[in-house]
Design brief:
The protein is of the alpha/beta class. It is built from 13 helices and ten strands. Strands 1, 2, 3, 4, 5, 6, 7, 8, 9 and 10 form a ten-stranded mixed beta sheet that branches. The longest helix has 22 residues. This is Tripartite tricarboxylate transporter substrate binding protein.
Length: 326
């Protein structure tokens, strides 16, 4: 990460013409990126890549703060209640910024409580097993789940996150049962999965990649419609069984600010993110994690988020899922 930050400083002036406009605004005081998840997951990784980059660009401290719990809603509310001055940012994701609006009955924020700034990274989830599970293909795994008849447990990075709903949808389509065990982020989940305390998970490929490559977890397939370029031999789950043909889940992580943040600030921070995404080191790091950069202006990101909210709302209503935010 330190090497990435140094190269950012060296290459940034040549990265994008938009960077000149980004220099029109600086926070002037300490800024922060709130992470609505525990350390170790993709949300955490992305914030901790961006924080030192912003700090180098602005010349003022930028801290990354973990505010986990409630499927990402606790950290989100922290930012929603913050001053819209550009110094309070949220590293949001598909869970609290898309799925939560339909999943939770008593959610204290709405889509217009936040200002979308920029998407950052996107990628699939991946079905990973503890090596003790006696399955090496998806059909074998489904057969094992049916034999277990609800005794098997899968970990999630939080209620209402895409790894949680990936498991729900998988069980629905394959007519299987398993018990969801919810953690405060992908970091704690992976610790227990590697230890064998839960037996499988639908984790973000970005946070599981190191364990897959290290042989600590066995990957059976990605949740996206197509295979991942980083693991081309790993099938998309929809390839493996006729029942899974409709299965298509991709996850994403992007930057938000409180509603009412002035447009010039939003545009300036977006331009900084675009420059960061254009750096060769960024693309290389994302590829190692199984993700790809997701560039675009604030308007594009806002439209993308609206579409995600609508898509997951339909899935949740169809499945009859509803719960209270904690």
């Amino acid at each position: 990460m330190t090497r990435l930050t140094r190269r950012v400083a060296l290459t940034l002036p040549l990265a994008l013409p938009a960077v000149a406009r980004a220099q029109d605004w600086r926070p002037g005081q300490q800024a922060r990126i709130v992470i609505p998840a525990a350390p170790g997951g993709t949300t955490d990784i992305m914030a901790r890549l961006l924080a030192p980059y912003f700090q180098g660009r602005w010349g003022t401290p930028v801290v990354a703060e973990n505010r986990s719990g409630g499927g990402g809603t606790i950290g989100t509310m922290d930012v929603v209640r913050s001053a819209p001055d550009g110094r309070n940012m949220l590293m949001g994701n598909i869970g609290p910024q898309a799925i939560a609006y339909s999943l939770f009955r008593n959610l204290q924020y709405r889509p217009d409580s936040l200002t979308p700034v920029s998407n950052v990274i996107r990628g699939p989830n991946v079905l990973v097993l503890h090596p003790s599970v006696p399955a090496r293909t998806v059909p074998e795994f489904v057969a094992w789940l049916k034999r277990e008849n609800g005794r098997a447990s899968y970990g999630t990075s939080g209620v209402g996150q895409s790894p949680h709903l990936s498991g729900v949808w998988f069980n629905q389509l394959t007519d299987t049962k398993s018990e969801a065990v919810h953690f405060r982020g992908a970091g704690p989940l992976l610790i227990d999965l590697v230890a064998g305390n839960v037996q499988f998970a639908f984790d973000n490929l970005t946070s599981s990649m190191e364990h897959i490559r290290g042989g600590r977890l066995r990957a059976l397939g990605v949740t996206s419609a197509d295979r991942s370029p980083e693991l081309p031999d790993l099938p998309a789950l929809r390839e493996t069984l006729p029942a899974l043909a409709p299965y298509d889940v991709s996850t994403w992580f992007g930057l938000f600010m409180p509603a009412g943040t002035p447009a010039p600030i939003v545009q300036s921070v977006n331009a900084e993110v675009q420059a960061f995404l254009a750096l060769p080191d960024t693309a290389g790091r994302f590829a190692q994690m199984g993700g790809v950069p997701a560039p675009g202006n604030p308007e594009h990101f806002a439209a993308f988020v609206r579409n995600e909210i609508a898509k997951w709302g339909e899935v949740i209503r169809r499945e009859g899922l509803q719960m209270d935010a904690t």
